[in-house]
Amino acid sequence: MGRYDCMPVRPLNVGVIVKLEPDFSEGNVSYNPDGTLNRAETKNILGPHSAAATLAAFYCKVKYGAKVAIGTMGPPIANQALRQAQLISNADELYLYSDRIFAGADTLATAEVLRLGVSRMNNGLGADIVISGHRASDGETGQTGPQTAWKLGYPFIGNVIDFHIDQEGKSIYAKRFISLYGFYDVIEEIQAPLPVFISADPSYKPSFNTISERLSLARNLNEARNKADNFEKYLQVFNSEGLGADPRYVGLPGSPTIVYKVEKIPKAKAKRRVEFVDGNDTVKLDMVAKKLIQLMTEAPIK
Amino acid sequence: MERYDVAIVGGGTSGLTALRQLANLGKQAVLLEAGNTPGTKNISGGILYSKKPKNGRVYNIEDVFGREFIDDAPYERPITQYILHATSKNKLYSIDLTPVHEYQINYAYSVLLSKLIPWLAKEASDMSEKMGGGIISGVHLGSVRWEQGNSDIVIDTDELEPFRVKAVIAADGVNSELAEVTKARNKFSSEQLYQGVKVVIKLPETILEERFKVTSEEGAAHLFAGDVTMNHIGGGFLYTNRDTISLGAVYHMDSLMDNPIEPSRLIDTLIRNKLVAEFVKDRVPAKKSSQALISKDEEIRQHFMAVKLLKNWNNLRSEYYSRDGIKRLIESGKYGTKDEIESRIAFLENELVEKYNYEFGDNYVELEYSTKLIPDGKRCRMKAPYYKNILFVGDAAGRGVFVGPRIEGLNVGIDDAVRAANAVARSLDRNNFDEHYLGNFYTKSVEESPYTRDMKEIDKDYLKIFLDCSKNIPKDIVGSRYGMIFKLMSSGTLRGIAVGFANMLGFDRLLPLVESVDTYVNVPVELADRLGKTIDSNYVPTTPSLQERIAKLDYNDDSISHIQVTEPRSEFMVKMASLCPTRCYSYENGNVILQHEGCIECGTCAYETLWRHPRGTKGVSYKYG
Amino acid sequence: MSGVTQNSEPSTGDLARIESYQHLYVVIEHEEGIPVPVSLEMLGEARRLMDNFNVKYSSNEKVVAVVLGDNVRHLCQELIRFGADVVVYADNHSLKHYTNLLYTKIICQIAEDKNVASSISPNRSENYKKPRYMFFSADNTGRHLSSTVLAQLESGLASDINKLVISDLEIRHEHKTKGQTVKFEKTLEMYRPDFSGFLWTTILCLDNRNPVTAREYHPQSCSIIPGVFEPITKEDQRTGTIIDFEPQISDEDLRIKVLSRNIIKSTIDFESCKIIVSYGRGIRDSPEDNFKLIEQFARALNAEIGISLPISKRPYQTKDQHLLSYMIPERVVGTSGRKVSPVVYIAIGISGAVQHLAGMKESGFVVVINPDSDAAFRDECDIFIKGRLEEVLPTLTEHIKKHMLMIEKRA
Questions:
Q1: pTM for this structure?
Q2: What's the domain range around C394?
Q3: I want to staple B212 with a disulfide (CB 3.0 to 4.6 A). Which of B92, B205, B220, B363 is the partner?
């Protein structure tokens, strides 16, 4: 009933890197009196960009019958991210890379763990395509994906909005969306050989265009729901030793960068308190004009 | 091109029933739904009936989905009380119509479609997938065509590659696109339609049960006629759900065209009726305007803290006032006794009042605003509800049943859907989709349905029960117009003859008499004035602005407008500036301009525009229905 | 985190280390040979930082612009005029369009090339290993490119930076300094706004001075937010060195191909605007005249013009083509159009529908001009000027022009 574009020699192996993040929606997020995030009181969810990456993997599963593995580096509760990702993608394997010595890692040290982790996926076969989200909602550096790609030796393609795989020719055709500040927007089409590492643009949405693909989609989602009740069955946990990590290159020791200090930004985003001005009051209007110019010429900190 | 056996367009109760029935018969079918998931674009008053007519049979939902429907489906409450109120200012005269409600029914459940339909969808798709079919969401019909040489229908959608099927069941509602693209029937005119505007209101479970004097296995329906209608033909309804209330007003479109008033205002009038206000009242927090001078940082921090406290208060209170909620809370270990929970609720309230400038008082909590058109089967049902090998069911075929104060739509669509599915299955077996074999067969089946009879004739037994319930109404109020009819109808023997005669004359001759401002406004007002009880209410509900109502709805805007104005200066379109429930039309410099982004896709303006549903996943999504 | 104490003497070991890492390399982005604005902004900030650096440390380190492309040599001189001391230029047909793998490889080749270093500083390059600092743009290209370059150079990267300071810091860190207080000279403090928008986080890229895991981490690198820094005023007389670099490209690298590039119809650029002036149905009494006033006002403020959703439906009959050209969907601010967050947002004749507010509520400072003091916007602005635009705008425009003139005279 389902049909794929062409039967592969062996199924595609797809790996996804995800992250468990604080839920920033109002009503769920909690802030400390000093304005910092109260992580203890804030729920954690699969990050929205990680979810987009997971959808891209799901696309491969529905369209190409790919095997999907999801991996994350984090403390034990990070397995919740894996569970949620499985619900979206009907993933076959879940991997948690967890060890106390991984703590304090910046992106380079995290990338080191992830590249070891990806190599463990699919019984050590690794992945033909690795997918990550554009960035995390906390942290927000967007660096971990490309750095993991570099360490794996896979070419990196970012901001992917659409793609398809030529399984015989073993290559990917990807469409990227590039915003050029001060210029225009560009959509670029790239071809690269597999294996490859892509990051899904935040706007990525998979599209399935035939009835048979849509029916396959529905079946997969059903299977996914059934799996999620029992997700531990699909989960493997690796610590530092299990990954064969060198302690000098992971965690705090492996991090070139540190957070030095955190301080309040002088101009906080706030609920506004309005000042009323009578439109006939030329003196007041003059003050408004002065204020506008002052704001215009100050260093624009966004 | 991919080929499947049957396509069903529209994932409402009718479409899903057809899908499941076809699967029951071992047939493959694919259902196309434009919303993101089934249930996001469906509105019902709503009560779902299961009927047992004295003559003939109808197919009820449990006939298709099995006993599981009654045992497991997430309907809201069995409706066991049915009361009609005549209103005039703060006076009401109430008539218990429960016997009328119970006439020929197995049961009547209040429903919220956003909850019910996903359940039906799962039951239908699980079965259908075994037959190689299923449900495909986020897909909007573009057009259909027949190619030379065979009877297959090629379906073009906005989202998918074209595919072909042997037969189609059109379950796409009152604004059916299949009807539109095939021109199988004309668009419904204002004479043939009712516009229903509805709000869903929150009311904690045990508070609701105490207020309406029902147990957990019971529910109440209250209807309103009189001054609440603002001089329109039709009435208001209030149905109890599990822990919400469906409140709405349904008016004949012609009377709205004669006297256009914004739907938002019409529902506000109903909400402010004293009895309704008392029915929907709850304890509601409101933020007082702040006088204190605090830094902006502090303001943000307070905002987040208050939002969290409100969320906790709401959750705890909802749980406390839900059946077994107290038990659950104690079992969770968080609270030892009922008193502890009450103290905690009081503590949260106190925090909000003392630290965050809130106050608690009487008001009501509105969750969702919606509007739907209902076709009056008497006036617009398709006599031959098919076009080639496309069969039309439910609202798409114009088959709403209006019997006195009762409106039946869901159950009619379900009955139609089963008949259509059976007809299609029969054609699949013989591979014959000819008009004579399929279309005609289905038409005959639908004609035999007791629902069709309800659209053609008066049922004298129903009439008797109605009259019995209203026997306390003084004859002189009913006035000279009805005097003769009442005399005839009250006598048993004469009634039979009178009804027979009336049915011969035809429903449409009688309609102007019955469906009039007299019936729905003047008589009830006089009744209430003279005989009504006074209802006291110590608060006036704060109704949200239309902007606030729209802000609560979930939209996925499409850059392309799904509606095109073709008559920017016509009388009809000018009235749309008032009758569009979300003010999508504005009247500037003699022209009517459309802003499609707030559209809730009711179709009020469909008659004189190029009207389509939005593309797949686009447009509004309802959370309650 | 770490603590800071008073200055102490630099250790002699530092002197030797310093020589290995020199100069600030700025990776330039260009589109068809024209530098994107952030490239010039980065050069401006680089110039200011290194001028101060050279004075403070009595040194002569350079701002080195790195350019990859196909036949865009003319760009190099322009970069010098905008503050670069040196431009290293790799010219190759395969470099016409950015692809991550190839650009990363070549930039790293350049960064670690001793010959290039000795062309930059002939007498101080025997120990040269890598740049001291590196800048990238924080846009689609730069953020990914910086990540892979720093993965290859095995050093630290902070992204989305909007403030930079070079200083000597006394740091005590449980791991970096094994709890001891150590002086780190010439450290680049990189400030980035965090996810909540309330806080500034300062990131440092520091060597591991912990004997157990001793390691050097250079270049200290960051990607810079567009629109934050100012380019220097172009100096036509400025001179510098242009170095042609021969990139090493393998066949394997060429298997990644850009097949096509489609420019999406040019959008109104709200992003690089500091001020946006929007108008709505308030112009209805006299659309053409009122729009003229709005345009003059916007011009005085160097602002881009936005509209409310109803205006895009062209509700007013007019033959004024200019006005019509401004009533287009691309200019709509709101959930059906664009989400903007300029420094200043001015709403004229707009009531403040929820969908419009959602599109601009992140703006820094909001001014509303509306004769109706009950308009919904009153709760969502910083200044509410109650008045008709026909009366308020001419006055405001005049005051603004007057003040701008005074400022220019002073400068």
A1: 0.79
A2: 275-410
A3: B220
